[in-house]
Design a protein that fits this description.
The complex is a heterodimer. Chain A is 74% helix and 0% strand. By secondary structure, chain A is an all-alpha fold. The longest helix of chain A has 29 residues. Chain A is globular and about 70 Å long. The termini of chain A are far apart. Classes of the chains: A mainly alpha, B alpha/beta.
Chain lengths: 473, 130
């Protein structure tokens, strides 16, 4: 896979995703960052329709392009109105992908990793053969090992690109998944930048966001020095970064319409990428509804975030796909307090804690001290000092522990093979939260310095004059 | 009066220290995880590490070729292996060249057994079911 080919694939994803992303976010420039994962979300959504109606592969591939073109027509028809009312967007966030380029270089490794082949690229080959092939494969007991109920975002995107290219290259699929992951990780950095951009100098905000991009790859790499988790075809960092970005937008940023739209798009991506992503998204949507007090347009956007993931869940059940979450779960045993299930709780909590302990402890310290000294600055950044992100972390971690406890798989094997990947999302939430608190502290220090120099325009006046409108008081 | 001013000054000093601690700790936490990512990436980009991944991929391709040499294209096959790696790799690797199915429906049963990590140590046996 040459660098030129990777650039061409990236450009194709941006081209297909640009107008749908622009339509969803209302942004003209920043939507370039989210365009690749929006293209994949579109492919996954059209793919879901193709599977339920058992349509040929041409429908899924051409339908994705047609949906993108339709979004383009809608955007271009409203472009004049946007120009009249739209604000200028800084091009600075477009630098964020550069922060992820070094870890991205590991895409040069061979496409041989376990789940990438057994799950994601096998499912992509089904999509290349069309909706009926996906439907039949989901019902095929010989493919039960492949988690046939897993969501379609990454497989459909690869299936569509393979269909157009006339090849089923694993190396291409690895590159495409890596590009989607880079897009999601970049959007996480952008979410941090977006939350603090009005209160801090541009270079401070963009530098912090860039380090967050690199840290996302670091979280995925901790304890797995033999695997390039962001570029090996796995989708754990992809959904986790999109999910954490969604959390920052809907729980840590000001309650404004733009944050809501970005958050809904990111959460839709997370919920359409992996089953645990969908569970986590349901919980965060509930938190966001409380935070937004169910005021319009929050319910519509947040319902939209759930729609693609829930639609796939229904299609997979209709097809009769084997599901470890729905079909074989030991929830009944847990409710009956079966000792065989209860014995799984303690080792699960230990394993999850082992993965997260350092980040949890430092982030907790930062939050507690932050609440003591930087509450007002945090309110200016987020509209509230309420620990919404910690609630999201708690809900996500609890859902994770629950999934391991009721899983039919042998616990030791299950934890050993996945706990480092399933805990990426809650760890990213806390990293983002710690960074936002850090930004809040810097903003407070700048405010103090501003007060000491009365000739300077008061920081609070600048902040309040440039803040976006809140959805509610 | 002077005590109150001094108290206020101490509180403001403590607050400033707290703000610096939050800013530094928040940033260092993220930066430290980023450092781990950079170190891991460096290791993953070493020539030997990359070569090892291609050796594994070559072995997977070689074992699949052993199946291709013994099974006619499009045939219904079932894959058996006590080794989870080869069980999964050859089921997914055989799609869509073959109709991968259960043993009850298969025309051929492919049995893969591994005595080691290299292709010459992986045996492939193909037997017709009827």
């Amino acid at each position: 896979m040459t660098a030129v080919r990777v650039v061409v694939l990236g450009a194709a994803l941006v081209a297909v995703g640009y107008f749908p992303a622009r339509l969803a976010t209302g942004s003209r420039v920043w939507c370039l960052l989210v365009a690749p994962i929006t293209a994949a979300l579109l492919a996954g959504s059209v793919g879901t329709i193709g599977v339920v109606l058992r349509l040929p592969a041409a429908f899924i591939s051409l339908g994705t392009v047609a949906a993108s073109a339709t979004a383009g027509v809608v955007v271009l028809r409203t472009v004049n109105r946007e120009r009249a009312g739209g604000a200028t967007e800084s091009a600075l966030p477009l630098l964020l992908p550069i922060a992820g380029l070094f870890p991205f270089l590991t895409v040069r490794r061979a496409p041989f990793e376990w789940d990438a082949r057994s799950i994601w690229w096998l499912h992509a080959r089904w999509f290349t053969d069309g909706g009926a092939a996906v439907w039949d494969a989901m019902r095929n007991p010989a493919f039960a090992f492949s988690h046939p109920d897993y969501p379609p975002l990454a497989p459909a995107a690869n299936g569509v690109l393979w269909w157009f290219g006339g090849t089923a290259s694993s190396q291409q699929a690895q590159a495409v998944t890596a590009i989607l992951t880079l897009s999601a990780v970049t959007v996480l950095g952008f979410a941090g930048w977006h939350a603090v951009r009005r209160l801090l100098p541009a270079w401070v905000a963009i530098a912090g966001a860039g380090v967050l991009v690199l840290a996302a790859y670091g979280v995925a790499g901790v304890g797995r020095s033999t695997q390039a988790s962001g570029t090996n075809g796995y989708v754990d960092l992809l959904w986790s970064a999109a999910f954490a970005a969604g959390c920052v937008f809907v729980l840590a940023a000001h309650r404004d319409p733009m944050a809501l739209r970005w958050g809904a798009l990111c959460l839709a991506v997370a919920g359409s990428t992996k089953n645990e992503g969908l569970v986590a998204v349901v919980l965060v949507v509930a938190l966001a509804l409380v935070r937004y007090r169910c005021r319009r347009p929050a319910p519509a956007w947040l319902a939209g975030a759930l729609a693609p993931g829930l639609a796939w869940l229904i299609v997979a059940r209709l097809a009769g796909a084997d599901s470890e979450y729905l079909g074989n779960s030991r929830t009944g045993d847990l409710l009956r307090l079966d000792p065989g299930v209860l014995h799984r709780v303690s080792p699960t909590v230990d394993a999850v804690w082992h993965e997260m302990a350092e980040i949890v402890l430092v982030a907790a310290g930062v939050t507690v001290v932050g609440l003591l000294v930087a509450t007002s600055a945090r309110r200016r950044l987020s509209g509230t000092a309420w620990p919404w992100m910690w609630l999201a972390w708690l809900a996500t971690t609890a859902s994770l522990v629950y999934a391991y406890v009721v899983s039919p798989a042998p616990l030791e094997w299950h934890l050993m093979t996945s706990v480092d990947r399933t805990t990426i999302a809650p760890r990213l939430i806390l990293l983002a939260e710690a960074l936002v608190w850090g930004f809040a502290a810097v903003a407070a220090l700048r405010q103090d310095a501003g007060r000491a120099r009365p000739t300077v325009t008061p920081w609070s006046a600048r902040a309040s004059s440039s803040r976006s409108p809140e959805l509610s008081p | 009066m002077r005590d109150a001013a001094r108290d206020r000054s101490v509180i403001q000093g403590a607050r400033k220290v707290g703000l610096v601690v939050v800013a530094v700790a928040g940033f260092l936490l993220v930066a430290d995880v980023a450092r781990i990512g950079v170190e891991a990436t460096r290791g993953l980009l070493e020539r030997d590490s990359i070569a090892e991944t291609y050796a594994k991929l070559d072995t997977q391709r070689c074992v699949q070729e052993k199946i291709d040499q013994q099974v006619p294209p499009g045939a219904a096959i079932a894959v058996r292996s006590p080794d989870a790696l080869w069980f999964e790799r050859n089921r997914e690797g055989s799609y869509p060249r073959y109709d991968v199915t259960t043993e009850a429906r298969a025309a051929y049963v492919v049995t893969v057994s591994a005595r080691g990590d290299t292709c010459d140590l992986v045996d492939v046996q193909v037997s017709p079911t009827r």
